[in-house]
Amino acid sequence: MIQEYNQYTAEDHKVWKILFDRQSQNLADKACKEYLHCLDQLSPALNGNTIPNFEQLNELLLATSGWSIEIVPGMIPVNDFFELLAKKKFCSSTWIRPLDKLDYLDEPDIFHDIFGHVPLLVHSCFSQFAHAFGKLGVKYREHVSIVEQLQRLYWFTIEFGTLTVNNETKVYGAGVISSYSETLHVLNKKTEIQNFNLDNVTTQSFVNTEIQQSYYSINNLSELLQLIPILENYFEKIVNEKKVQYEIR
Ligand SMILES: [Fe+2]
Description:
The protein has helices spanning 10-27, 33-41, 54-65, 78-86, 110-117, 124-139, 144-159, 174-177, 180-187, 198-203, 222-248, and strands at residues 68-71, 89-92, 162-165, 168-171, 192-195, 214-218. It is an alpha/beta fold. Strand 3 and strand 4 (168-171) form a beta hairpin.
């Protein structure tokens, strides 16, 4: 699939600009500094002026991180998603929400996928985690329960993860980063934010159609990197336990 860049209307670019400017301002004191730095690094090809052109963005993204954007028609099967991540390809749609629905989305659009997900791919720890996550998904694609646990892990880190920095909450997950109202919701003192715990995260179900009720926090993005060998052991143990159960039967 290709991005038919000339098909975007003046209103599409206007929507992008409104979303980009409003959320950049909102995030200035709410996003983790790593996200803001990466967004700035990509600013020649990812800014509020126009909808990003994937050709330009891919060139910069490949040069800085080895990642590239893979255009998808919408939600894709989880195993295809794992495979793309394992090849350092991040999925994005090309459509943008209409002007009269700036805050309501049934499924991810280009603003969520690009503004929300892409900047942190330039950050070394985050990039390695997303890549390792994809490889784990490919490795365990036949294990239904592990795939489910990986989806939950993705949800509470890459999609809705938060950081606690000097007792302050900062957001890094793309679902929050790309949402004006969810950013405010996370920073609301009444919102429940728990310390990241792998057992809790992999057993907690989630709803993808509503604002989240709980979030998990880590202290810095290098914890994602430290999580990789822990996950490898964690899932290997599950596979071995299943084998033992099978042999006993
Ligand atoms: Fe997402």
